[in-house]
C-alpha cells in the first residue's frame, strides 16, 4: 500500500486532450500528465471507499512482494484480471511524474 501514484481525474484528462486539439495548442511536446497530489495506493483506495460510501476497513493487510509476484505471473499466464507483469512493475516503481511536471503543466497549456 506504500506505492506512490498521482491519479488523474478522467474529466480533467478529457479537458486536457480537448485543449491540446485546439489550433495553436502545444505541438510536438511530451506532456507528463499528473494528478494534483501524490498519494500512496492505500490512500487512493481509502479515497475511493469514502466516495463510494464504503466503510473504512478495520484492518489493512500488506501483501508480501513475493506473493504479489506470484499472483501477477498467474494473471499474466491466464490472460485475465487486473494484475499482470505490467501492473506489478508500475506499482513497484510507483506511478508519479518527474519532479516539476505538475508545475510545468500550466505553462505548457496556457
Tell me what the structure shows.
This protein has 110 residues and is mainly alpha-helical. It is 49% helix and 4% strand. It has helices spanning 10-20, 41-51, 65-78, 85-93, 101-109, and strands at residues 4-5, 39-40. It is globular and about 50 Å long. The protein starts with a strand and ends with a helix.
Give the secondary structure arrangement, pairings included.
Elements lengths: L3 E2 L4 H11 L18 E2 H11 L13 H14 L6 H9 L7 H9 L1
Antiparallel strand pairs: 1-2
Give a quick rundown of the structure.
With 110 residues, this protein is mostly helical.
| Element-level helix/strand string | EHEHHHH
- Largest sheet descriptor: 2 strands, antiparallel
Count of helix runs: 5
Computed over alpha carbons, the radius of gyration is 17 Å
Instruction: Tell how many strands the DSSP assignment holds.
Output: 2
Q: Strand arrangement, largest sheet?
A: 1-2
* Beta-strand proportion: under 5%
The overall pLDDT, averaged over residues, is 86
| Overall outline | globular
Query: Which spans of ≥5 residues are poorly predicted at pLDDT below 50?
Result: none
* N-C termini distance: 35 Å
Q: Helicity range of the residues?
A: 40-55%
Helix and strand composition category: mainly alpha
Amino acid at each position: 500500500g506504500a506505492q506512490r501514484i498521482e491519479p488523474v481525474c478522467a474529466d480533467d484528462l478529457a479537458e486536457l486532450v480537448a485543449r491540446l486539439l485546439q489550433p495553436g495548442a502545444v505541438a510536438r511536446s511530451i506532456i507528463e500528465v499528473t494528478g494534483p497530489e501524490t498519494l500512496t495506493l492505500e490512500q487512493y483506495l481509502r479515497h475511493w471507499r469514502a466516495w463510494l460510501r464504503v466503510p473504512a476497513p478495520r484492518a489493512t493487510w500488506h501483501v508480501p512482494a513475493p506473493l504479489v509476484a506470484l499472483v501477477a505471473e498467474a494473471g499474466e499466464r491466464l490472460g485475465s484480471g487486473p494484475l499482470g507483469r505490467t501492473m506489478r512493475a508500475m506499482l513497484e516503481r510507483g506511478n508519479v511524474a518527474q519532479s516539476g511536471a505538475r508545475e510545468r503543466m500550466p505553462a505548457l497549456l496556457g
